[in-house]
Amino acid sequence: MHYLLSSKFLNDLLPNKFCDPQDLKADPKDEYLKTLRAIIRCFTCPDRYFEKVVRQAIAGIGTDESSLTRVITTRAEVDLKLIKEAYQKRNSVPLERAVAGDTSGDYESMLLALLGQK
Predict the structure, then answer these.
(1) What is the DSSP string of 42-110?
(2) CA–CA separation, 46 vs 52, rounded Å?
(3) Residue 25 Cα distances to 29, 91, 107, angstroms
(4) What pLDDT, on a 0 to 100 scale, did the predictor assign at position 3?
(5) Which of 28, 59, 73, 103 has the greatest CB tally within 10 Å of its CB?
(6) According to the model, what pLDDT value does residue 86 have?
(7) DSSP class of residue 15?
(8) CA 30 → CA 33, 35, 39, distances in Å?
(9) What CATH number is given for 46-114 in this structure?
């Protein structure tokens, strides 16, 4: 696992034109680099990565139900507690309250149950 997060791995993975890991910030619109940055964030700090996915799923008008459901259901037994803490720290609102305010009905009940709200 350590090899995956090492600079040697990044240098092996990156094409020749991106020899320096700092070049990952070179072009924010480049889809390859955007995907690579997301993968690295997910490996290095999964709670913050998934907090961002949840925040973006809830933000604005409507809900990205697919992203919200995917994170809550797949992380429920892994690190959902850390994601909830990261969400509270970043947004000053408990994740349960944000989910309850953005969803309704059985869908809301299911998500809140997975989040541990009684």
Answers:
(1) HHH-HHHHHHHHHHHHHSSSS--HHHHHHHHHHHTTTTHHHHHHHHHHHHSS-HHHHHHHH--HHHHHH
(2) 10
(3) 10, 25, 38
(4) 45
(5) 103
(6) 94
(7) -
(8) 5, 9, 14
(9) 1.10.220.10
Tell me the C-alpha distance between 63 and 15, whole Å.
36
Q: Which parts of the chain sit beneath pLDDT 70?
A: 1-28, 118
Q: Is the pTM of this model over 0.90?
A: no
Burial call 81-98: b when 16+ CB within 10 Å, e when fewer: ebbbebbbeebeeebbeb
Confidence at residue 89, expressed as pLDDT on a 0 to 100 scale = 95
Q: What pLDDT sits at residue 9?
A: 57
- What b/e string do you get for 60-80 counting C-beta neighbours within 10 Å, with b at 16 or more? eeebbeeebbebbeebbeeeb
Q: What is the domain partition of the chain in residue ranges?
A: 2-44, 46-114
Residue with tokens 């609102």: 93
Integer Rg of the chain from CA: 17
pLDDT of residue 19: 46
Distance CA 80, CA 101 (A): 19
Question: Which residue has 């850390």 as its token pair?
Answer: 82
